[in-house]
From TrEMBL:
It is found in: Cytoplasm; Nucleus. Residues 11-105 form the WPP domain. The lineage of its organism: Eukaryota, Viridiplantae, Streptophyta, Embryophyta, Tracheophyta. It comes from the Eukaryota. Gene3D superfamilies: Ribonuclease Inhibitor, WPP domain. This is Putative WPP domain-containing protein. Residues 501-521 have a biased composition (Acidic residues). Keywords: Cytoplasm, Nucleus. Residues 494-532 are annotated as: Disordered. GO terms for cellular component: cytoplasm; nucleus. Pfam families: LRR_6 (PF13516), WPP (PF13943). The keyword Nucleus applies. GO terms for molecular function: GTPase activator activity. The keyword Nucleus applies.
Length: 532
């Protein structure tokens, strides 16, 4: 006998349960739904057909959920999964009991199982795990749950998996039968690595399969669409009349593609979310997107960041945004609006009383564009919570208007003014704003040529606020002694102070302003030697 085998631990795997065990559980639940008990006396018994259908669905849902639970701890014996499975069945069974039997219009018990619909999975998501190609055989198995009769999936997410034409055809045969129930479709990043012709073929197949769906949300991001890709989805886009959310981020959408988007979407009256981040749209493309925005009076969340839009496009977008009086979140970061675009945007902001978040970093606004915007925000958007004006070459000359705006925004929770030239005066003025603010919890003043004197006043102001969460003053001109003092100020709450590793203790202003010249002269006078 192998002695080592005597010492080997003996274990029994409890999961998954056998098919006989699962069937026995279905029979027990069917019995619970059809026989007299405290619950059935109160809520009514189900007939056998309805009870059996519900019991099968309950077991399917509980098994699938418990199996996901088991996959997170595959090295165990499965005991925890079994307990989870039993509890889930009990919970779902109780919900069905409380709902009681379905009734027909004439009051008779209906032999259907609609009363368990709410218990069934509503989201079908294959995006988890590693990115991978999918061909026909794998698609048959992967998409099998979508073929189950009576399933209640209303959202599908095929992101992070690359479909070939064969897999797309498999999906097509399934999706055509789900048209009436689908509300949300996520096809982001679903043709990665495919040759252009193949990718366009896949897009066209999905477009045809989903044509006519009454979708509320559609995500086509990360697919390098270009104009050809947009038009490949033409059938689907043209059939959308109640769309509330549209995501077209990182899609390589040029001027021509932007025009195709504007042309192919017939109605955007109900559109609430439009995200158009990281495309190569440019000014001409922005004119086309502006047309979509102009037709979207219900828009609440508009993102058009990193799209190479200059002053002309910025003026067009700003004009269109004037029609979107329900706007709550606006993100135009990383474009080239310039002063002209900033002034045009300020005029549109007068109509956005409900604005909560506004991100306007790296727009080349300079002082004049910034002043125009904050002057308008001072009088509008009373519940503004986030203001981002970083990277706009703003100097201390714009501080009076900025401070006046901030003092009026009593709900402001996050202020981002990094990578400007506000210097010590900016830090000192912000410290005064903080004293009168009850909601402000985050301030970013990184890379603003702030020295120790300004940093100290701002730090002392925020550290006294019990609810304040985070101060970023990295990348400034704070002395080494000042860094030590800052660390000491936040010694009881170090997590509220951001890193200081990019600070330059020897930094100097990069212009020849009067103060800088005086400091330089004073330094030279200290080392001056007078010869006899």
């Amino acid at each position: 006998m192998d002695l080592s085998s005597q010492n080997r631990p003996f274990s029994i795997k409890l999961w998954p349960p056998s098919q006989n065990t699962r069937q026995t559980l279905v029979e027990r639940m069917t019995n619970n739904l059809t026989t007299k008990s405290i619950f059935t006396q109160k809520y009514g018994t189900l007939d056998k057909e309805e009870a059996e259908d519900n019991a099968k669905r309950i077991e399917d849902v509980a098994f699938a959920t418990a199996n996901l639970f088991y996959e997170k701890e595959p090295d165990g014996d499965g005991g925890s999964a079994v307990q989870f499975y039993a509890k889930e069945c009990s919970k779902l069974l109780l919900e069905v009991l409380k709902k009681g039997p379905n009734k027909k219009d004439n009051g008779e018990v209906a032999a259907t199982s609609d009363n368990i619909t709410a218990l069934h999975e509503s989201i079908f998501d294959i995006s988890k795990g590693q990115r991978a190609f999918i061909e026909a055989d794998e698609a048959q198995e992967l998409l099998r749950p979508l073929k189950e009769p009576g399933n209640s999936f209303t959202k599908i997410c095929f992101s992070n998996r690359s479909f070939g034409p064969g897999a797309a055809l498999v999906a097509q045969t399934i999706l055509v039968f789900l048209k009436d129930q689908l509300k949300e479709v996520d096809l982001s990043d679903f043709v990665a690595g495919r040759p252009e012709a193949e990718a366009l073929d896949v897009m066209s197949i999905f477009s045809t399969a989903l044509e006519g769906c009454a979708l509320k949300s559609l995500n086509l991001s990360d697919n390098a669409l270009g104009e050809k890709g947009v038009r490949a989805f033409g059938a689907l886009l043209k059939s959308q009349n109640i769309l509330e959310e549209l995501y077209l981020m990182n899609d390589g959408i040029s001027e021509e593609a932007a025009r195709a988007v504007s042309e192919l979407i017939p109605s955007t009256e109900k559109l609430k979310v439009l995200h158009f981040h990281n495309n190569m749209t440019g000014d001409e493309g922005a004119l086309a997107i502006a047309e979509v925005v102009k037709r979207s009076p219900s828009l609440e969340d508009f993102r058009c960041s990193s799209t190479r839009v200059g002053a002309e496009g910025g003026v067009a977008l700003s004009g269109a945004l004037g029609n979107c009086t329900r706007l709550k979140k606006l993100d135009l970061r990383d474009n080239m609006f310039g002063v002209e675009g900033g002034i045009s945007l300020s005029k549109a902001l007068t109509k956005h009383a409900g604005l909560r978040e506004i991100y306007l970093s790296y727009l080349n606004l300079e002082d004049d564009g910034t002043i125009a915007i904050v002057n308008v925000l001072k009088e509008s958007a009373p519940h503004l919570e986030v203001l981002d004006l970083s990277g706009n070459d703003i100097t201390a000359d714009a501080l009076p208007e900025i401070v006046a705006c901030l003092e009026a925004k009593q709900f402001l929770a996050k202020l981002i003014l990094g990578e400007n030239e506000l210097r010590d005066e900016g830090a000192i003025q912000l410290s005064k704003v903080v004293e009168g603010h009850t909601q402000l919890k985050e301030i970013d003043l990184n890379s603003n040529q702030v020295s120790w004197s300004g940093a100290q006043k701002l730090a002392l102001a925020v550290v006294q606020k019990a609810d304040f969460k985070f101060l970023n003053i990295n990348g400034n001109f704070i002395s080494n002694e000042g860094i030590d003092d800052l660390t000491d100020i936040f010694k009881n709450s170090p997590n509220r102070l951001g890193p200081l590793d990019d600070n330059d203790p020897d930094g100097k202003y990069d212009d020849d302003d009067e103060g800088g010249s005086e400091d330089e002269l004073e330094s030279k006078m200290k080392n001056l030697v007078v010869d006899d």
